[in-house]
Amino acid sequence: MSSYKETLDSLRTSFLSGKTRSEQFRISQLEALGRFLEENKKAILEALDKDLHKGMFESEVSETSMVRTEINFAINNLRSWMKDEYVEKNLATKLDSAFVRKDPFGVVLIIAPWNYPIHLMLIPLIGAISAGNCAILKPSEISTNCEKVLAELLPPYLDKDCFAVVRGGVPETTQLLELKFDYIFFTGSPNVGKIVMAAAAKHLTPVTLELGGKNPCYVDKGVDLYNTANRIVWSRFFNAGQTCVAPDYVLCDTETRDQLVPAMRDSLERFYGKEPQKSPDFGRIINEKNFQRLKELLGNGTVVIGGQTDENDKYIAPTVLVDVKETDPVMQEEIFGPILPIFTVENVEKAIEFINQRDRPLALYAFSPDNKVVNHILDRTSSGGFCGNDGMMHMTLISLPFGGIGNSGMGMYHGKYSFDIFSHHRACLLRNTGLESLNAIRYPPYSERNLGL
Ligand code: NAD
């Protein structure tokens, strides 16, 4: 504990020295982060492969190149983001200067999960650096190889007075959370999100919570089956389904279900071959605990695609389930693995009702040949993000904010939103020292003031 406190105190001293405030310092740290990615690419890709059997392409697309894009975007826009924003004034302040200053919070704590261990640690860090904060990073202890890369290879690139990486699991994070940070950015499960928020509340520390849950995917009658199946299968089985924005279950009528299942079988075979276990592009379950949890879910409903498992390899085949009940665990808990249940509903109104009776999801998907149906679902529901006629693609746009609502989290980041979330928007008014006669109206005594009453 005392060493965490010492680390925090020393980062706070650096923060208070003003070191992180200049544009030049922030750019230098962002560039250093870029060099870390380039010079350690092999080690990063190997760690992702060891932890999750992530193929090279998948790792590039969803981890390293997304981070690279965010770094470039921040470097190119930092100067304009940092500028004071001048605001409209009233009569009494006409000759003054009124603006919003984007101030750093101070020392922030960033806690990451294991499923995109590089991306989910470094993209928030880009926001923290851009906004001029110091940071303590706590990677997931479960993705052990990536944790090692972040703890051993990253620190030499960053200013050691301003950034530190802490390794560990629940006990270590619990100790960290006892300290008074200026901001906490947490990505993980809703249950741990509540623990983080409760700990932050003791110090009135503001938080961003990037959480998970069940993302519904409505499929309307008459969709293009080939395209729809490809897009759902890709987004569900990417990273072996261990993605917070993956479609968690499909809602459709029975006729659509009967057409969709063979189309998804074809897509799966095209993507991963007849034996997905042999595909270099299909991932593995992160650990034994999650493997056993997912294996149990295979007992829900009826398996119509996949269902095979190999414990030694932590392999679960891409699986589609039908005939699931609302009360089945697979329809109650976040699946976070390569299993896709299809739950039948009579029509779009019933699908909307089903969605609105549950926690508000991180992402919501609607496929339809009719844009009016997609828009109708968008208008009548609530979720962190929404994507019509595809899965997950909305989060690839740096211009869109990313985050949840309700049980799926609070606070949005990516691109400029990351800079904003790590900045305190400080209200500043710099008054003119003269023109006292204009101020006289607000000074007592008030007894002789005619208010026209
Ligand atoms: P998790 O909540 O178990 O762990 C996340 C982090 O919290 C880890 O660093 C872990 O060490 C720490 N932690 C775990 N238990 C803790 C405790 N009791 N006290 C203090 N710290 C604790 O989540 P996970 O299993 O790593 O990740 C999966 C979850 O994360 C899923 O729910 C998924 O949807 C969600 N997720 C959300 C996003 C998003 O951007 N919204 C992204 C990825 C994952």
From TrEMBL:
<feature type="active site">
    <location>
        <position position="244"/>
    </location>
</feature>
<feature type="active site">
    <location>
        <position position="210"/>
    </location>
</feature>
<dbReference type="GO" id="GO:0004029">
    <property type="term" value="F:aldehyde dehydrogenase (NAD+) activity"/>
</dbReference>
<protein>
    <recommendedName>
        <fullName>Aldehyde dehydrogenase</fullName>
    </recommendedName>
</protein>
<feature type="domain" description="Aldehyde dehydrogenase">
    <location>
        <begin position="24"/>
        <end position="424"/>
    </location>
</feature>
<keyword id="KW-0520">NAD</keyword>
<dbReference type="InterPro" id="IPR029510">
    <property type="entry name" value="Ald_DH_CS_GLU"/>
</dbReference>
<dbReference type="Pfam" id="PF00171">
    <property type="entry name" value="Aldedh"/>
</dbReference>
<dbReference type="InterPro" id="IPR015590">
    <property type="entry name" value="Aldehyde_DH_dom"/>
</dbReference>
<comment type="similarity">
    <text>Belongs to the aldehyde dehydrogenase family.</text>
</comment>
<dbReference type="InterPro" id="IPR016161">
    <property type="entry name" value="Ald_DH/histidinol_DH"/>
</dbReference>
<dbReference type="InterPro" id="IPR016160">
    <property type="entry name" value="Ald_DH_CS_CYS"/>
</dbReference>
<dbReference type="GO" id="GO:0004028">
    <property type="term" value="F:3-chloroallyl aldehyde dehydrogenase activity"/>
</dbReference>
<keyword id="KW-0560">Oxidoreductase</keyword>
<dbReference type="InterPro" id="IPR016162">
    <property type="entry name" value="Ald_DH_N"/>
</dbReference>
<dbReference type="GO" id="GO:0005737">
    <property type="term" value="C:cytoplasm"/>
</dbReference>
<dbReference type="InterPro" id="IPR012394">
    <property type="entry name" value="Aldehyde_DH_NAD(P)"/>
</dbReference>
<dbReference type="GO" id="GO:0006081">
    <property type="term" value="P:aldehyde metabolic process"/>
</dbReference>
<dbReference type="InterPro" id="IPR016163">
    <property type="entry name" value="Ald_DH_C"/>
</dbReference>
